[in-house]
């Protein structure tokens, strides 16, 4: 899942994949909350799963990957 997130961010958000680590925060990469919402919506469509993010405190790529994986299991 982490690799899928990096691929998405590099294509859709025009980020260098080499700059993205599991510890990278969205803020440190210039990703705003609207970008995160759009990414989540795209992933929901692609994966066929609903990702309720309201009560989640997710700020890094690694945390988001773990959250999505938990919803897929």
Can you characterise this structure?
The chain is mainly α and 73 residues long. It has a single domain (2-72), classed as Non-ribosomal Peptide Synthetase Peptidyl Carrier Protein, Chain A (Orthogonal Bundle). The chain is 52% helix and 0% strand. The protein has helices spanning 2-12, 33-47, 61-72. The chain is globular, with a radius of gyration of 11 Å. It starts with a helix and ends with a helix. The mean pLDDT is 93.
Q: Roughly what fraction of the amino acids lie in strands? A: under 5%
Reported CATH architecture: Orthogonal Bundle
CATH class: Mainly Alpha
The string of secondary-structure elements, in order, is HHH
CATH superfamily caption? ACP-like
Largest sheet entry: none
Describe the structure in brief.
By secondary structure, the protein is mainly α.
Topology:
Layout: H1 2-12, H2 33-47, H3 61-72
Structural key phrases:
Non-ribosomal Peptide Synthetase Peptidyl Carrier Protein, Chain A, mainly alpha, 52% helix, globular, 73 residues, 3 helices
């Amino acid at each position: 899942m982490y690799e899928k997130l990096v691929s998405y961010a590099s294509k859709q958000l025009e980020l260098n994949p080499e700059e993205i680590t599991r510890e990278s925060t969205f803020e440190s990469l210039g990703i705003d909350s609207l970008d995160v919402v759009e990414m989540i919506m795209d992933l929901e469509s692609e994966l066929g799963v609903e990702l309720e993010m309201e009560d989640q405190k997710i700020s890094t790529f690694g945390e988001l990957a773990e959250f999505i994986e938990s919803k897929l299991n």
